[in-house]
Amino acid sequence: MKKYQFWFATGSQDLYGDECLTHVAEHSKIIVERLNASGMLPCEVVWKPTLITNELIRKTFNDANADESCAGVITWMHTFSPAKSWILGLQEYRKPLLHLHTQFNEEIPYDTIDMDFMNENQSAHGDREYGHIVTRMGIERKVIVGHWADEKVVRRIASWMRTAIGIMESSHIRVVRVADNMRNVAVTEGDKVEAQIKFGWEVDAYPVNEIAAYVKDVSKGDIDTLVEEYYDKYEILLEGRDPEEFKKHVAVQAGIEIGFERFLKEKEYHAVVTHFGDLGALKQLPGLAIQRLMEKGYGFGAEGDWKTAAMVRLMKLMTAGMKDAKGTSFMEDYTYNLVPGREGILQAHMLEVCPTIAEGKIGIKVNPLSMGDREDPARLVFTSKTGPAVATSLIDLGTRFRLIVNSVDCKKVEKPMPKLPVATAFWTPQPDLATGAESWILAGGAHHTAFSYDLTAEQIGDWGEAMGIEVVYIDKDTTIRGLKNELRWNSVAFR
Ligand code: MN
């Protein structure tokens, strides 16, 4: 992750004299120091001199635009700051904006409070004036309310910072397509030009044999070293196959991992799509190789699904460096358990599930693939972690993009599945399987998802809103009647 910073800009005016302005600066410096000392923020907060004039506000926002390490500005009106002085600065500002609606003192000082104190500490007043102009100008921003030392508030700032990173990084995502979308499939299609306009994504195609040439050029020595690493790290599940033949199959994936990564690095791509039916000179469908690349932070989409590949990359960036991260992966809805009280969706893919979401042992298996016409590919197999997570689907509705965000509860399957040669997860969508799946289908969600334990629906939804697209949440509060109305109203709002 790039070392981003966030600027802390406090608004005031000179109506209350120098002493008041000295206090304002002192207070905001203390807040910045304590936020940084909390250890809860993914990035540093940088204090900026109090903003009291149109000129200084405009200059500060333009400096923030120009500073490559600045990923956003946090604003707070300590006193009253007439909002017309913010118009030009806000108009020219292009990065994420947080309005921290806080106050230096937590409690009203009942015994000593006088008019001087009230004039100095009037964010309840000043932040409303400021909020009005941001709303009037139609600027997308986050508002967080509460005392700055409250852990819940600091956590929300930390969470917003990761959304801001997603907004900043989105326009640097480059996806390489070494295969087109699967023939006749609708939901993985989309307008790549519009995706670049809306999200900043570059989506380029290369002939598959160009990447296959990189794979062919990988030396035997490099392959042997990586195969050794696999054999150290993972459990080898021969299941009756000849050990030497098994190893040869694994070595093909090692060559693909190294060759693909060299290609991606050299050409500066951060996400890749493949297609089991369009493999050119590749001997196997990239399985283990893609799983390892996803683990390293690359985005991936199967069957040419470049939208999901970009989303997986985005979510990897938003969660980069997170302490105790549980993982982010490309995923696919496969099979239901419809037994009452135990409902859920078994998640998997032909091969390509990211091992960051694994819990427990990770094994390697070599099995035939029922689709395509290549060698039996090696793949990592495991089951996944439990707990809350988000499954997201970005769809193109022809006139606009819609981002569907489903909060899901991940569980263990009740029994092992010894005959299933792929990595899996299992979850129940909120609010329950029937309502969740009905909502997903009504909203037009895909079978492929970008999935993460480490992001909240709020974080990913805020990213979508910042991109100016429609966001549909499916969670514990969803009702079919409410969702249908929302979709109906959105079809007017997002025309
Ligand atoms: Mn698929």
Notes on the structure:
With 495 residues, the chain is an alpha/beta fold. It contains 15 helices and 19 strands. It has a six-stranded antiparallel beta barrel. The protein has a five-stranded parallel β-sheet with strand order 2-1-3-4-5, with helices on both faces. A four-stranded parallel β-sheet has the order 7-6-9-10, sandwiched between helices. The protein is elongated and about 85 Å long. 47% of the residues are buried. The structure holds manganese (II) ion (MN). Manganese (II) ion is lined by residues 302-303, 332, 349, 448.
Question: What key attributes describe this structure?
Answer:
alpha/beta, elongated, 2 domains, binds manganese (II) ion, 495 residues, 39% helix, 6-stranded antiparallel barrel, 5-stranded parallel β-sheet, Rossmann fold
Helices and strands, with pairings:
Elements: E1 5-11, H1 17-37, E2 44-47, H2 54-66, E3 70-77, H3 87-92, E4 97-101, H4 115-120, H5 123-136, E5 142-145, H6 151-170, E6 174-177, H7 192-199, E7 202-205, H8 208-216, H9 220-233, E8 235-236, H10 243-266, E9 271-273, H11 288-295, E10 299-301, H12 306-318, E11 328-337, E12 344-348, E13 358-366, E14 378-384, E15 387-396, E16 401-410, E17 425-429, H13 433-443, E18 448-452, H14 457-466, E19 470-474, H15 480-493
Parallel strand pairs: 1-2, 1-3, 3-4, 4-5, 6-7, 6-9, 8-13, 9-10, 16-19
Antiparallel strand pairs: 11-12, 11-18, 12-17, 13-14, 15-16, 15-18, 16-17
Helix pairs in contact: 6-12, 6-14, 8-10, 9-10, 10-11, 13-15
The chain binds manganese (II) ion.
